[in-house]
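By convention, each integer encodes one residue's backbone shape. The lines below illustrate.
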Amino acid sequence: MKVKRFLEGGVARRVVVVGGGVGGLVAALDLTGAGLDVTLLERAETPGGKLRQVAVAGRRLDAGPTVFTMRWVFEGIFADAGAALSDHLTLRPASVLARHAWTADQRLDLFADGEQSADAIGRFAGASEAAGFRAFSAEARRIYATLEKPFIRGARPSMGSLVRDAGAVALWGIRPFDTLWKALSQHFRDPRLRQLFGRYATYCGSSPFLAPATLMLVAHVEQDGVWLVDGGMHGIAQALAGLAASRGATLRYGAEAAEILVERGRVAGVRLANGERIAAEAVVANADAGAVAAGLLGAAVRGAAPAVAARDRSLSAVTWATVARSEGFPLSRHNVFFSGDYAAEFRDLGAGRLPREPTVYVCAQDRADENAPPAGPERLLCLVNAPPTGDSHPPTPTEIEQCADRSFRLLARCGLTLTPEATETTTPEGFHRLFPGTGGALYGPAVHGATATFKRPGARTRVPGLYLAGGSTHPGAGVPMAALSGRLAAASLLADLEKTAWTSTARSPAAATPGGMSMR
């Protein structure tokens, strides 16, 4: 990002970022680099948002996103801040992308090397399915190439702008009106492979039976590189926060924003839960757009973002962060244990209930590609998809217990026996408390149908001076996408600052009112 100095009377103009998730941290870093006086408010005691850790049996576990891809996004962010990603994070490429199992004797690894994956698929399901995988990978690569510049990097594309930028023929070639499941059925006859690659829809909290075929691009993203982060995924947030602070941003933890203030039709600052007011000329809200629309950040900005109907939410989850002894199944870092009936699983989720037979994802955080287990208990995050009903009719304790029983019995059928020492469970209700206004949905609105991605709000809002960032905004869910949303919010704010002479109540830094939180 081009560095500029934005001054008013020799004093840097003030911006407040609400929310210390990845999008907010990146926006704060970019805005600080442009010379603005940036204060980031995070109600938790650490940065990261969904990129969180929990303590179990005295050990720290990643309890949010576990897959690091699109390294180039972060290399660009750090480079534009005058730093090198490699100086702040130690990343190791994963040779095994994921290990998949249906029964104790049905296992399939996918590899970073595409030909190695094709060979494995050939041994697992036959030569025709290996050929189907090669064709699928080529189509995923073509979809990504078509959408990277106009959509992933674009400010807020529409179908019309995609036609203009990518071309009608190229856009039609990525089959935007086919479902992912239909496209997979044309590449694979083996239902297990359709199930495996259909899982890519769940990366953005959606159903493979309703999501568009364009989500095949996730396969290319993974084949382009999955990285293991030394110290865990939470280290990404810590690195961004540390760099932003070193560049001059003020990061305040335990500081909950209660209301975004609006005066004379534009943003004027933020009121904290303790009553403190911080004057600002602009605010970046790194919160779920649905929370803004619901008025959780003040009635004055309620209409700044489109409301998300409960039926349009993405999936939630039930997670078990556990320290356990494992036996039997040779875990890799990323493991998926599939249910016997994928369609029934998503019918249950669509009906608002926990799956009667769930698919279980297990992240073995003390393992890399090798199969050798740690010497003692290991850190595992186990996850099943759940409906986003944490605010309306959350699963009961009995239903959660039944879900756990079904999930761990599936692991046992696939050969994995776990003996937990300690476990922390998070349910849709718990995720709703962590991320208000979502019902526990973890990915913003679901990506169902050809036009769903265009309904996500962009960085700019209807309230002058208010900008949005995070996984519920364009370009979508996931750690690299959330980071890009932060960049888009910062770029939009800076462009507007250049174009207009802002009218503000904060022409110089205002002193905190009595009773405010201390700086950190």
